Amino acid sequence: MSLGKYKLALKDFEFVTKVRPNDQDAKMKYTECNKIVKKIAFEKAIAVDKKEVNIADSINLDAMTIEDEYEGPMLEDGKVTVKFINDLIEHYKQEKHLHKKYAYKILIDVKAYLSNQPTLVDIKVPDDKKFTVCGDIHGQFYDLMNIFKLNGLPSEENPYLFNGDFVDRGSFSVECIFTLFSFKLLYPDHFFMSRGNHESLDMNRMYGFRGEVTFKYTAQMADLFTEVYNWLPLAHCINNRVLVMHGGLFSSDDVTLDDIRNVDRNKQPPEDGIMCELLWSDPQPMVGRSPSKRGVGCQFGPDVTHSFLERNRLDYIIRSHEVKSDGYEVAHDGKCITVFSAPNYCDTMANLGAFITMNGKDLKPNFTTYEAVPHPNVRPMTYAHPFFSTLVQ
């Protein structure tokens, strides 16, 4: 169910209800799963005639009016500026919404930019410059603001890479993603974003983002987000020495950086292969590989990591994707680093958050950890289907 395989899950629930006909919990889950299967079938049926429609191209910005009473941040000549971002952050802290015209404009511009970027982005960091890598944010806007308080706002002098899972679970995902996308447009060569497994339709449908966008804006905007996410790069390589991806390494021994570059990413993640494993895989302490506990991707050992690094002439990898009590974990003899930047994940995990800083010369990772900060009284998963409120991926 948590992987979005609703029809298979429905068969399992149906079996359970037959074996345990008086189990009310089983009946409830069967009923809810059946509703989701029927809803998706209906959505597909009405979408048949719209298959080739590009949402971004169908948006008419000129038809959207900025009301006189709107006092929020405004794009200047249709462009993101430093003033716009500063105003946007303060606007969000006051729990207000960006006008839909500007929101749509940002999404259209980000999609246009990302669609011209490679699947594997090469980043050059000068020897004497700092570079920051952040892990999962998961809609925790106020913790994102704390990162910027501790480490400075992104700029040409203070570049960042955010390593996927910007949204879902946390109920301020809209605020997070528009802040990050605004920085991407303002500093395209100094602000980077990798796709995570939660930048996908099934995850967004289950874990809150699609519901949040529909509540705060429209279902059409939620569809546009899906288009934009399809174009996010899958990995970044820093100074030809450090590879950064959201998930991890591969079920095959012969994958090269060129193989990653050649992935056609403009789609929903498949259930296997390079794209899937970049988004979903996890490290394990024992050598070799194991089936993933998540049911998708694989688990890879230190020998797999060392072999991959040697083959591709890399120093180490950075990945995210897993909650860590200290906000980070150094594994595989220092060659596989996990960074997770959402402290007290889902308001329940009591973990620290962390980010990594390094300079361009030695690329030595330095870790900064921090606790969660207070946020408005909107619980995580507020916009998710109640069925999924206890499922973690």
From TrEMBL:
EC number of this enzyme: 3.1.3.16
Domain Serine/threonine specific protein phosphatases, first and last residues per copy: 98-374
Keyword Manganese: yes
SMART domains referenced in this protein's UniProt entry, alphabetically: PP2Ac
Cofactor: Mn(2+)
Pfam families membership: Metallophos, PPP5
GO molecular function: metal ion binding; protein serine/threonine phosphatase activity
InterPro entries: Calcineurin-like_PHP, Metallo-depent_PP-like, PP5_C, PPP_dom, PPP_phosphatase, Ser/Thr-sp_prot-phosphatase, TPR-like_helical_dom_sf
Catalytic site positions: H198
Swiss-Prot/TrEMBL keywords: Hydrolase, Manganese, Metal-binding, Repeat, TPR repeat
Name under which the protein is recorded: protein-serine/threonine phosphatase
Organism, scientific name: Papilio xuthus (Asian swallowtail butterfly)
The organism's taxonomic lineage, starting at the top: Eukaryota, Metazoa, Ecdysozoa, Arthropoda, Hexapoda
